[in-house]
Design brief:
Strand content: 5-15%
CATH class of the largest domain: Alpha Beta
Number of domains: 2
Bound molecules: NADP nicotinamide-adenine-dinucleotide phosphate
Distance between the termini: 16 Å
Largest sheet: 8 strands, parallel
Radius of gyration: 22 Å
């Protein structure tokens, strides 16, 4: 397959600038957490892989020194223990010689190996339609395109308006959590929207270890129901894996209490978030009501795992094998790392072909993989636009695999995640 080199050049520049910007933020703040720091090296690795591919558009006899240094920079980024060690690398990324090589590649094209269209591990839905609802084990119906309410830069009054607008626009699934502190605004917004409660799917979570234990959990859920102005929530999840270490006993008691709350009709279905396969199995081993949803990070760079160095397992496939539905979060924003998928030049180029905004293409990609999405936005036009992802034409198998493969380009470990077919191999060896 012959492809234009321009998006590879653009992706290289975009990602090393993102790495530099993130490094600047890190240096001014001191520390932003290991995930964020890993995101900086990840962005530089993505830059290196894109540049290596782009340079296949130029005869291999040209820019030999630049190619050799690029390979060295790639190794440096892969080995970097601290992103601060990468500061000096930017001399290379911004050097005139490297820019000249990229300029030479920009108008060329490169030959990728044929892409396997069979994607056994990611494919789950028949690729002819995306159903707007999924029926969870136990019978609850969940809309697959929801609205994220982890929106932190708005006043309560503004958030109430946004939630009311979201419901009026047609969002029916609202994702909340104890940690977001927005349940009061969501409850008020949904009341003001006038949408009947029976038409809504409200999900929330237990986020804080201080709310573990049967009494504490019951108190929390009742408080959340009050804030959300509802007699029941459709889905209630553990925000993270509490069933290990010091919280394990209290977390088990909490789960039992959640099961009781289900039998009282205050919760319809139970779920988890950010759970690995092992953590999912731990909870399922004692649960009388098993989790039916796992909410995990899902964007094209990290399909199912949040940390770039850990948890490279195929959680999506594992969830499916266990009849657990996957809800993907931060599909657009890049959180908690540095690369924002919605700005990626490969995504932009493909979105143009489909005559769609990049965000809609990304949401559509996840939906076509059978993953529910919960984009957040405080912008009415973007809120309306995102909702249309359900009704876009199908993304072809080829383009789906090119989007899936971005995870291989961004992966911090060479070649991982191994369960995503890597279409970004040129017919010349890399
Ligand atoms: N379980 C967990 O641990 C966890 C973690 C993180 C998030 N979540 C949930 O997932 C939800 C979504 O995640 P998120 O808030 O990180 O990110 P997201 O939905 O991936 O992206 C939101 C960001 O993208 C922008 N955006 C939205 N639509 C856009 C469009 N069409 N074009 C361009 N930009 C667009 C928004 O800006 P504007 O507002 O300006 O449009 C906002 O900055 C959260 O609200 C929360 O409910 C769960």
């Amino acid at each position: 397959m012959l492809v234009d080199a321009a998006p590879y050049v653009d992706a290289c520049v975009w990602s090393y600038l993102a790495a530099e910007e993130a490094l600047g933020r890190l240096e001014s703040k001191g520390s932003l957490g290991t995930r964020f720091e890993c995101g900086i090296t990840e962005a530089l690795i993505y830059a290196a892989r894109n540049a290596e591919l782009a340079l296949h558009a130029v005869p291999s006899s040209e820019f030999k020194d630049v190619r050799a240094e690029l390979q060295r920079q790639h190794r440096v980024a892969l080995a970097a223990v601290s992103p601060k060690a990468l500061r000096r690398s930017f001399q290379f990324w911004k050097s005139a010689a490297f820019q000249a090589a990229l300029d030479a590649a920009r108008s060329g094209s490169l030959q990728l190996q044929d892409v396997p269209v069979c994607l056994p591990l990611l494919r789950s839905v028949p690729l002819f339609a995306v159903e707007p609802f999924v029926v969870l084990p136990g019978g609850k119906t969940m809309p697959v395109l929801g609205f994220g309410t982890g929106i932190f830069n708005l006043s309560t009054e503004k958030l109430v308006d946004i939630v009311a607008l979201a419901a009026r626009l047609g969002y029916r699934h609202f994702d909340c959590a104890q940690a977001y502190g927005t349940e009061g605004a969501v409850g008020e917004g949904l009341q003001r929207s006038g949408v009947p409660r029976a038409d809504l799917f409200i999900a929330t979570k237990l986020s804080k270890p201080s709310s573990l234990g049967s009494g504490e959990t019951r108190c929390l859920v009742e408080d959340q129901l009050r804030k959300l102005q509802t007699a029941y929530v459709d889905l209630y999840s553990f925000h993270r894996a509490f069933l290990v270490g010091e919280n394990a006993v209290a977390a088990r008691a909490s789960w039992r209490e959640l099961e009781k709350l289900c039998s009282e009709g205050k919760i319809c279905a139970l779920g988890v978030s950010n759970h690995s396969v092992q953590q999912l199995d731990t909870i399922s081993s004692f649960a009388r009501m098993k989790p039916v949803v796992n909410q995990v990070k899902f964007d094209v760079f990290r399909p199912g795992y949040q940390h770039p160095k850990m948890g490279m397992e195929n959680i999506i496939c594992a969830c499916r094998e266990r009849s657990v539905h996957v809800v993907g979060y931060s599909t657009l924003s890049g959180w908690p790392l540095a690369l924002r998928a919605v700005q990626d030049p490969h995504v932009a180029a493909m979105a143009e072909r489909y005559d769609q905004p990049p965000a809609r293409l990304l949401l559509r990609h996840a939906l076509q993989r059978g993953i529910a999405v919960i984009p957040a936005s405080a912008n009415p036009d973007r809120m309306a636009s995102n909702l249309r992802a359900l009704h876009e034409p199908l993304i072809s198998d080829l383009h789906m695999s090119l989007l899936d493969g971005l995870a291989c380009l961004a992966s911090r470990c060479a070649g991982a995640p191994g369960w995503v077919p890597d279409p970004y191999r040129t017919s010349a060896s890399r």
